[in-house]
Amino acid sequence: MRWRGFLKAGSSSRLLALLFLALAPALAQGLPQVRELSERELYWFLANRTQEVVAVGLPPASLGEALKEKRLTLVLGREAPPTWARGAKVVRLGGTPMAGWFLLADGRFFVAPKGAAFVVVESPEVVAVLRGYFAVAWGK
User: Fold this and answer.
1) 77 vs 27, 33, 55, 91, 128, CA distance in Å?
2) 66 to each of 4, 31, 109, how far by Cα in Å?
3) Comparing 27-36, 49-58, 100-109, which segment has the lowest mean pLDDT?
4) Strand order in 52-56's β-sheet?
5) 126: nearest Cα among 30, 27, 28
6) Do 47 and 64 meet the contact criterion of CB atoms below 8 Å apart?
7) What's residue 12's pLDDT?
8) Which of 4, 26, 70, 103 has the greatest number of CB atoms lying within 10 Å of its CB?
9) Across-strand partners of 73?
10) Is 5 exposed, middle or buried (0-12, 13-18, 19+ CB in 10 A)?
11) DSSP 138
């Protein structure tokens, strides 16, 4: 009853203030930035903009080449690490080989295949949640 009177009696500025109060928590965290990249663009992104990468499953060898000089952690089933991943830390989850793959980079980026392209989500919150799940699996 009070809200109806608040909205009827007020101007659009009251409605705007109410809308802002409702959306403030979402705006405070920020919306994730999502980009779709070609394989060539993703290679450049990984080679030039990342330093530390956690690969869950095995990305294509063409992208793996971009990860050679990175602090790399591979999370695998029972598949063998590829030659481009020499020196990488390997964490075994056991079971069968991974069916797919995704990357967590620099605590900010989630990278995954999407059809013929790749999606890059810039969201420290998304990466923190996924790393948390794997930390439990790794026993950390």
Assistant:
1) 38, 30, 12, 9, 22
2) 58, 28, 15
3) 27-36
4) 33-37, 117-122, 109-114, 102-105, 52-56, 71-76, 89-92
5) 30
6) no
7) 55
8) 103
9) 54, 89
10) exposed
11) H
Taking CB atoms within 8 Å and a gap of at least 24, the contacts of 30-34 are 32/121, 32/122, 32/123, 32/125, 32/126, 33/121, 33/122, 33/123, 34/119, 34/120, 34/121, 34/122
Give residue 130's identity as a one-letter amino acid code.
Answer: L
Place of tokens 């993703």: 42
Confidence band of 25 (pLDDT split at 50, 70, 90)? low
In the numeric block, which tokens belong to residue 100? Answer: 């797919």
Rounded average pLDDT over 4-27: 53
Terminus-to-terminus CA distance in the chain, angstroms? Answer: 52
Q: Measured between alpha carbons, how far is 88 from 136 in angstroms, rounded to an integer?
A: 20
| Phi, psi for 120 (deg, rounded to 5) | -120, 120
SS3 label, residue 1: coil
Secondary element (H or E) of residue 118: strand 117-122
